[in-house]
Each structure stands twice: as structure tokens, then as C-alpha cells.
Predict the 3D structure of the following.
Amino acid sequence: MGDTHLARGKKRKGNRATIEPLRPMVAGIDVGSTEHWVCGPEREDGEREVRVFGATTPQLEQMAGWLRDRGVQSVAMESTYIYWIPPYEVLEAAGLEVVLVNARTLHNVPGRKTDMHDCQWLQLLHSCGLLRGSFRPGDAICRLRALQRQRANFIESRSRFVQWMQKALDQMNVRVHRAVSDLTGQTGMAIVRAIVAGERDPRRLAAFRDKACKNSVETIAEHLAGNWREEHIFNLAAALKLFDETERTIEQYDKRLLQEVEALQPQDRRSEAVPAHPKTGKERVIRKRGDQPLRQALWRFAGVDLTTIDGISAASAQVILTEVGTDMNAFPTEKHFVSWLRLCPRTAISGGKPIKKRRNGTGASRVAGALRMAAVSVRASKSALGAAYRKVARHKGAGVAVFSVARKLAQYVYRMLRHGHAYVDIGELQYEEQYRHRRIAAITESAKQLGLTVVPSPAPG
């Protein structure tokens, strides 16, 4: 849209606030892809001025100036797709407080069918203090977050290219991903590259076997005899090319993220030695994956080592820190943090009775996804978290166990980032002993309420 213009339309009766506003000098913005409808504070005559601005950068700067001229202190806007990001950043740079509102909280309000009415409603609710802003970290963390999220998109694309390679191999009945555990491992990729280069002899292909591979050369060769149709070879080569290009792009993102994290490290920690990992076995795994530089950079950035928590890898720690940062003041308690991650059960009650749970249309956040993956990784470990996972899984299933352990992980992450508490694994045996004592105490209390006495029996000899 070109120049800004005054909104045209009939004034609605009863449009003025019927309660005294808490913050009169606020504005509301209905965000769109090509234009933004802005409602300013009430004028002296009691009416609110509505203005339409285009979505171009000069128009956004005019909008910021228009709001400043009217003494606006805070602005509320809907988080519509990604269209809210440019006006948010321009208004924030102009020194205005911006409250990002989840559009779902406004969808069910009746009587608002136009953009002009939406922006007025936002302004009214914001002036009365009835809007709650969404969490958004600082500008430095937002830069990290943008890089991390795009990196995740490339990883997802890489998985699709691996599936295309598997499909081409299956169509030729060349069972590379059946002969080895991981097609993208050293043995699998060496065989795929040799096939694309023109090798067809199963035994020569099997000779690319890494010494750490469990299957013998003979077993692998038996899976590698195929029909070698040219169209499938062409598809395999194309998928391999895309896979390699995506791998190089991901490496570039890894380097850039590492540079950004190092730039945010406090000066006093940049030369400080990173404490040794409390679990030597996990540190060996981190070194083998090549994640030791990332682990050290994240420690110098955050001041705590999230990888000391069972199940949290260096990659998971990177996701957490690039999404929420190190400042947890936005979450007063760990319960607020867990609720934001949607890792707490819904307990909606109406009329004294729990109402039927319905999907709220919101997907799990990236942090919650990383914590769920971490919860799955500890299911067989000898740690206290592993014992907790197995206990819940026995009674309520694996899905509930993943949810429960992910919630525990979120609590540990919050305590480390907010209070600097170190994570201490008490171990499987001590966890089972504590669980046994809790059960005995609960049974004893129930028996006492029934007028009974629990008498422990001697251990069997």
C-alpha cells in the first residue's frame, strides 16, 4: 500500500471503554501481509483514531513516528504468521514497548468482523491490562534462534534426501540400509558413493565395510546384489548430491552459530578453563561426535553446563539456549517454565468437574521437543531419570513416561539457568530406595486413617 490514510467506516456506538483504563497511552495493531491497522489512544473528544499503514519499511517507520507523536508508550499486536516480525522490530528499535499477543485469545470474541474493529479491540483490552504478552527473548538470542531454526529446517530436508536414497536402493533391491545399521554412517555412505561412481560388484562394495561394522563382508555382499536400473541410479545420484550440499550448508550454520555464541560470552569467561564433565563416559561420546567445542562455548556463554544433565546432549543444550537464552526472569518459577513448554497436564475444571480435554491447536515448542528426545534417550540408563522413566512406563505406558521425564528435565534446566544449581544424579538404586520409602509412608498413612497398624515383616532369609 502507498501512503497512509485515515480509516473510513461508520463509528460504532458503545465503542468507548466502559471501565477506566489502566494505561490510556497504548495502541493496538491488527497485523496483515500488505497493511497494518493501527488504533491509537483516545483523543480529547473520547474517540480513538484509526490509521492504516503499509507493510514497507518506510511505512513502518512512519507508523512508529505517528505513535510517538501521540505519546504512545506501549503497543499490542497479534502474532500473525511472520508478518508481525518487521513491525515488531521497527517499533522496538523506536523505543516503544511491544506486547505480542497470541491471536487465539481473540478469535472467539463476537462482533469483530473487520480489521478496523480488531485493532480497536486490541487497544481497548491492552489499555485495561487484559492482554498477556508472549515470551520473546532479547535481540541477541533472537539472532541465535533464527539461525538455529533454519538449521533445523536443513536437517529436516537432509532426512528427506536420505529417504530418497533408501527408496532408490530399495527399487534396485540393493539393501545397503539393511546390511548396515545406518545408511548415513561411514560404511553406508562409502557404498552409496561407490555405486554412484559406477561400482557394481557386491564383494567390492562390501569391502568398504568399516572395521567397527558388526556384519561380515560376506553378509553385506549378499545384500548388495541388485538390478542396477539406470533410472534408479540417476535418482540415487541426485539424492546424494542434495544430501552432500545440505551437509555442507549445515556445517556452515554450525560454524556461524558457534561464532555467534562465542561473541556473546562474557569477557571474564572467555579464557576460563571449562570444568571437566562429571561423567567420563558421556564426555567420550561428546568428543566422538565432535561436540566438545560446542559444549565449551555453551558453558562459557551460559555459565552452566546443561550437558551434565542425563539425556541432554550438546545439540539439545544448543536448542535450549538459543530458544530461551540464559535470562529466566520471564518465568517467576519453574512451574511457569514447565507450563510455557506445555509439559504439565491440563486440569481444566468447570462446575467442579474436570471437562473433557480438547486439543488446543498449539504444537509443542522446540525446547519441549528436545526435552522429549532427551527423555527417550535415558529410558535404559542406570540413572535416577532412567529409573523414573521405567517406573512410569510400567504403570502408564511409554508416552506418559516421556512426558513425565521431559517435565523433570525442564525443572532441572530451569534450576541450573535461574539459580545455578548443579545437577546431581543419585543413581538408580538410591532412586528405587527413595521410591520404596515413599510407598511405605503412603501405605502407613492410609492404614492409620483406617485404624490399622502396619507391622513390617522380617526380610526373607
